[in-house]
Amino acid sequence: MSIGKHMDKAAVFFTAALLRMKPLEWYILMVKRKGMQHMKNPLKLFLTIVCSFIIFLLLTDVLAIHVHAMVPEEMEPILKSKENQKVAYLTFDDGPSLNTMEILDILDRYHVKATFFVKGNEEPYAKECYQEMISRGHAIALHSYTHDYSIVYRSTESFFQDLNRLETMLQKEFGVKSRIVRLPGGSNNRLRHQAATKPIINGILQQLMEKGYIYFDWTIDSTDGISPSISEQQIITSVQKGTKDQKQVNILLHDINSMKNTVKALPDIIEYLKKEGYTFDTIDETTPKIQFN
Asked: Secretion signal: which residues (predicted)?
């Protein structure tokens, strides 16, 4: 068989494969469209097919380029908004305390992370607690150094002096730098409703925003901070009622020496939230804000 015939057959099979047609079907089609004169020059035909195939590949490659980069599958969970998920933020105010280590152990047992809005405490046990909060993957946020209302809310300047004292201690001794704040008593505490102190609280809130802090209140008050006599079951019930029809819950709990029932209630609270389909997260600058009006 001559070289021309070999090239003729190669052209037929090569192009048929490209177009996903049977060789005979393509051959007949070419005869009908172009006539037999093209079949009589197999070299020219073969070169035409090769060039066409190269152009086809180039066009296919160009068309395959996306205007927007595709999101890798492993990144999708990170990019999805939490707004449609059931997320619980466990927050503990006023620690460290003599209960902190037990709280941390319970959180570890359930593989849950929490946010601790801490005070300034220079006691050796407290320093160990700060370090354990960090090493176990929890978030440390700012509450106040003294938690003494007569100092904290004496003036706007006094508030920030107290807060900066806490910041300095945390950063110097533990390398913690946070811009997340919870005011003692919350942003809508009783002093905000008194004529003498309302301007002070409003000034604090304004300056917090201007200085780049983010303050957080809560959506559920566990009521454990009312009195040490609040029972374990009352604390659990308050949390359960507060979660009704809520996807994002920010739960106020307390880490205080006298609040033993908070520690007792914590396992049941976590188990209930998990049963209801909540995941747990810590508060950071990307967390949806919870602020009282």
From this structure: none
